[in-house]
Every structure is written in C-alpha cells, then in structure tokens.
C-alpha cells in the first residue's frame, strides 16, 4: 500500500525561532507558524480563520532559521507530519504533532526577509530528516 506524508505551508512566524543543540551536537530549531484562509461566512461577510502549526528544523536548516527568521516573517516550509509521545512532570503521556521541515524558503522583499540584504531565500535549503533518538528530544 502506497502512502505519502508531505506538508507544504506558506505562513508567518508566530514567535522568534528557538535554536537548541542536542546532546549529540545536532542543531534543532522550533517555532510556531500561522496560516490563514479567508472566506465568506453565513452572513456573507468576509471572515478569516487562522491555524497554528509547530515547526521543527534540523541541522544547517535550523541554523539558517535561527540566524535569519524572526516573528512575523513569511516563509515556505515543506516537510512531513510527525507525532511524538512524551511524558509530563506528573508522568502522564502527552502527544505533540509537528511538522518536521525538510525544505524552507524565506519569502518577502529583499532585505526585509533576510538580515543584511542576504536575499530573499535560504535557497531551497534542505535539512536532516530529524528523527529523535532516545534522550535526544530538544524540548
């Protein structure tokens, strides 16, 4: 049976990027991203619905994000959905669904999207597949 796990999003960062380094020396970045859609509601007026997504980037892609991205920047992210299980302080099982980005591109005006006029893309930069190893969870 064939399957596909692929996400493509264009949206705005909801907070500044947080970059950490795992125990094995791997860079990992995380941030929230908003996507919005506009539609006519029952009353005929234009309404907007916003969805929030948790994004995780690994390796060089994480480093690029940490250097150039900040709250409010518009980006394109391509990756896959991943749900991971973890335990809270009380030992309860919790689940987090996130998008593990494999490609990222900064969008917007030159100089506005990247500090120092570095251009408006990070290339279609690709990152590590980002699987978590036991004890290597960044958050």
SSE blueprint and pairings:
Elements lengths: L6 E7 L4 E4 L5 E14 L5 E13 H10 L5 E14 L5 E14 L18 E2 L13
Structure, explained:
The protein has one helix spanning 59-68, and strands at residues 7-13, 18-21, 27-40, 46-58, 74-87, 93-106, 125-126. With 139 residues, it is mainly beta. It has one domain: OB fold (Dihydrolipoamide Acetyltransferase, E2P), CATH 2.40.50. Strands 1-3-4-6-5 form a 5-stranded mixed beta barrel. Strand 2 and strand 3 form a beta hairpin. The model is unreliable at 112-124 (pLDDT under 50).
CATH class descriptor: Mainly Beta
User: Class by helix and strand content?
Assistant: mainly beta
Q: What is the total number of structural domains?
A: 1
In total, the number of strands is 7
Quickly count the helices.
1
| Shape field | globular
Strand content: over 45%
Helix % is under 10%
Q: How far from one another are the termini?
A: 34 Å
Alpha-carbon Rg, integer: 17 Å
User: Low-confidence segments, ≥5 residues, pLDDT <50?
Assistant: 112-124
SSE run: EEEEHEEE
Q: What is the CATH superfamily classification?
A: Nucleic acid-binding proteins
- Indicate the mean pLDDT: 85
The CATH topology is OB fold (Dihydrolipoamide Acetyltransferase, E2P)
